[in-house]
């Protein structure tokens, strides 16, 4: 038995040592197992003969390969479990690092806000101290905001839990459906898919026909649109010309009214001068000469009286200035002219 254990350990140390960390596929494992089975059939006689002769049991090649395959499978399983465990630990550590970085950023932000609001701006200029009221108010506001953020995160986690439950339920349902599906169901699905493909082809052909009809209708519509646009432009031009002509007609009517008024005035003047011409009598020459002489005499007398009036006004103004100097008054007193004739017209230089 000691020799058997030594042989096993030696075989494992030779084969498993450098290759235990390498992944083995199922094909290689199955090939090794088949080779081991064939070798057992060939070497079974040698093992039996060795036992009959009284020698210790020997390990043939198939047993060695089986032992090696089992050891390699155990190593592979332990390696996979180690990898899964290391990935899980790595994810946990990464999430913890992210959490610590978020905490650090939150703490720095809270520190900066606290220093700005309480330490720098909260200092009393008289006592050079921070009042307790400002500190307590800041802490109450900060706790309220923290409570509000906690409520938001709680609602978010609750919604995520609900979504996770829904997704897990759908996954379980799909797994159950996948377990209950048979070959007949796949055949039925293929038949249904064929029918749906035929319907899709029909719909596509119908859609192509509709697109063709739509293209023709779009061409006709574009032609009618161009014609309508042209008609609209012509209509706008005619409308502008009609409005311009209406304006010209209004201007002509106004001019016509003005011309009628001028014509009426001209007719009235014509009638007046016609009547005047019919009833006019030329005066005698001597009478005209006498009237002309009287007019010239009256003009001369008017000029004389205007000169006399100016002279008397100058004398009156001089008298008023003397009265102001005598009396010391700044204004003209009406009592100075009580002895004057009320019918006389004098201009006073105040």
TrEMBL record:
Record localization: Cell projection, Cilium
Native source organism of the sequence: Phaedon cochleariae (Mustard beetle)
Lineage: Eukaryota, Metazoa, Ecdysozoa, Arthropoda, Hexapoda
Family to which this protein belongs: Belongs to the CFAP263 family.
A GO CC term attached to the entry: ciliary basal body
Protein name: Cilia- and flagella-associated protein 263
InterPro entries from the UniProt entry: CC_CF, CCDC113/CCDC96_CC
Major localization listed first in the record, in broad terms: other
Keywords assigned by UniProt, alphabetized: Cell projection, Cilium biogenesis/degradation, Coiled coil
Domain CCDC113/CCDC96 coiled-coil: residue ranges: 149-311
Pfam families: CCDC113_CCDC96_CC
Recorded superkingdom: Eukaryota
Ranges in a coiled coil: 221-308
Transmembrane segments: none
Alphabetical GO biological process terms: cilium assembly
């Amino acid at each position: 038995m000691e020799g058997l254990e030594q042989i096993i350990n030696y075989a494992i140390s030779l084969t498993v040592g450098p290759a235990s960390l390498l992944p083995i596929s199922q094909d290689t494992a199955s090939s090794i197992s088949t080779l081991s089975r064939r070798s057992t059939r060939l070497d079974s006689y040698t093992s039996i003969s060795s036992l009959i002769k009284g020698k210790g049991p020997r390990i043939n090649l198939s047993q060695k390969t089986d032992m090696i395959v089992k050891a390699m499978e155990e190593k592979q399983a332990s390696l996979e479990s180690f990898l899964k465990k290391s990935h899980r630990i790595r994810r946990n550590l990464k999430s913890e690092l992210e959490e610590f970085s978020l905490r650090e950023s939150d703490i720095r932000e809270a520190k900066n806000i606290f220093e700005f609001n309480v330490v720098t701006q909260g200092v009393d200029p008289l006592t050079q101290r921070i009042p307790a009221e400002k500190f307590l108010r800041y802490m109450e506001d900060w706790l309220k905001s923290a409570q509000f953020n906690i409520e938001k995160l709680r609602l978010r986690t609750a919604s995520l839990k609900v979504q996770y439950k829904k997704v897990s339920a759908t996954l379980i349902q799909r797994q159950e459906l996948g377990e209950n599906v048979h070959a007949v169901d796949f055949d039925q699905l293929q038949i249904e898919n064929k029918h749906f493909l035929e319907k899709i082809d029909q719909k596509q052909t119908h859609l192509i026909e509709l697109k063709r009809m739509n293209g023709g209708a779009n061409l006709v519509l574009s032609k009618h649109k161009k014609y309508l646009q042209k008609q609209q432009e012509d209509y706008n031009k005619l409308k502008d010309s009609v409005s311009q002509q209406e304006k010209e007609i209004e201007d002509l009517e106004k001019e016509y009214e003005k011309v009628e008024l001028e014509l009426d005035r001209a007719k009235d003047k014509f009638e007046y001068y016609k009547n005047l011409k019919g009833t006019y009598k030329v005066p005698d020459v001597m009478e005209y000469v006498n009237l002309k002489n009287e007019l010239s005499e009256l003009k001369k007398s008017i000029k004389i009286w205007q000169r006399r009036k100016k002279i008397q006004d100058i004398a009156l103004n001089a008298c008023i200035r003397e009265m102001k100097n005598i009396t010391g008054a700044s204004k003209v007193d009406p009592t100075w002219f009580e002895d004057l004739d009320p019918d006389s017209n004098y201009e006073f230089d105040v």
